[in-house]
Amino acid sequence: MLSILVLHGPNLNLLGSREPGIYGSKTLVAIDEQLKQEGQRLGVSVLTLQSNHEGALVDAIHSALGQHQGILINAGAYTHTSVALRDAIAAVQIPTVEVHLSNIYSRETFRHHSLIAPVVIGQISGFGANSYQLGLKALVYYLKGVQV
Ligand code: DQA
């Protein structure tokens, strides 16, 4: 069975109470639960991890080698700053989809640039918690070669 690693970056542990007007009111626990359910429907296993630490996320990407066939990542603010995360994704060459709850292109200009975008298959941004569901589906369809 295909295994997908879901990575959540900094401050996403506060989802539900963090700026709900921007990020919605769903908690990270609820999002992870929904991803696992969607994984079951898609016939893949889903492992989730949140960290506020850049190095821990880099370690998780390295550890995915040989364990997971795809990565779904919301790198949070590290999206806009982390060469290390970008290099880790490029190094392991595991197909990765980038997601964001908010539309990063309609917000402050410092959010318009994603350092990881050039090394992922694609990006889904702006659909709230649905971004994760859509991202998981897109990743699994990519890995299984499904055409819709
Ligand atoms: C975010 C967008 C980032 O700019 C921000 O720093 C986040 C969350 C999103 O999901 O919309 O922490 O990745």
Report what the structure shows.
- Helix content is 36%, strand content 18%.
- The protein has 148 residues and is of the alpha/beta class.
- α2 packs parallel to α5 and α3 runs parallel beside α4.
- The structure holds 1,3,4-trihydroxy-5-OXO-cyclohexanecarboxylic acid.
Give the C-level CATH assignment. Answer: Alpha Beta
- Indicate the overall shape: globular
- Note the run of SSEs as H and E: EHHEHEHEEH
How many domain regions?
1
| Strand order, largest beta sheet | 2-1-3-4-5
Q: How far do the termini sit from each other? A: 21 Å
Helix content: 25-40%
Mean pLDDT: 97
Looking at the structure, the CATH topology is Rossmann fold
Low-confidence stretches: none
The CATH architecture name reads 3-Layer(aba) Sandwich
From the helix content, strand content and strand pairing, which structural class follows?
alpha/beta
- What ligand species are in this complex? 1,3,4-trihydroxy-5-OXO-cyclohexanecarboxylic acid
Largest sheet report: 5 strands, parallel
